[in-house]
Description:
This protein has 2 domains: 3-93, DNA polymerase, domain 1 (Orthogonal Bundle), CATH 1.10.150; 108-255, Orthogonal Bundle (hpI Integrase, Chain A), CATH 1.10.443. The chain is built from 15 helices and 5 strands.
Amino acid sequence: MKVRELMEEVRQLSVWTPATYKTYKYCVDVLCAEFEHGNPDLEEITVGWLTGYRARCLARLSPVTFNSRRRHFCVLWKHAVSRKYIEENIFRLVRPAPVPRKPKAIPREVLARYVQVLSSARRELRDGTEVDMFPPQFFWLAVVKTLYTTGMRLRQLVGLKWKDIDWGARSIRLRAETSKTKREWDVPISDALLPTLEDLRRRTREIVGYDLADRQVFCLPLFSTRPFKHDVMTGERVIRFFARFHSKQDEDSVRMTAHKIRHTTATQLLRGNRSSLKVVQELLGHTTPYTTLQYVHPDLEDMRAAVDLL
């Protein structure tokens, strides 16, 4: 069995999204490029070769990038072991690269400050006219509030359509095709989020009319003054916004990303027993509570409150 054939076999037996296949294919392409014939047998990937490959990767890549690739190969090799193509998963034997610990959750007061900035930050043009600092600011405020109050992933945000919102039940259907785990579930619309979504719906209707069912909820090209080649919102546009937003903050400020907001949601809900682990697991769409626990990041004050109970 060769590496590329192994990937295709796993792909056929799994339910990969195009984005997932693209990631696996890139990892496999990079690894196969290490071999002159471009498609090695599984037996050619030995522990000795793999430790050297790790060293070469870490010479030009971040530890996080290498560890991500290693996780993808662990999945492929696990399948190979189950089919008895090989005897052991050597990617489990070669340890991941150590990664400096960085906070994955945004402190609540910092996120509140960022929301305030998006609510009111203005800048002055040369002619004295005041405009949004991050146009269209109402749009990006809606993005951040939706990510925070629902815990949804970035791919779910950009895949969200107006037909997925049940205004009567005040809920959002997160469809299987936008879910990492291929599950479908509903999340509630909070009191804080409802008026924001209603305002976004009103603004969208003013531009495209009332037939919104199959339109994206978050479609930046509708509201931007800049021309776009395509009228579809992508995750890359959200990533660029967060990068631009961070560039305008203090040098030592906490970077805001969609995934960090998701971690923040889990951390805040479980802080001080505000919610149960099972509820947060269902909100985030995790298949096991163990995964949910990886999203919870107690800080020093949380630990202080715990030891004060002793």
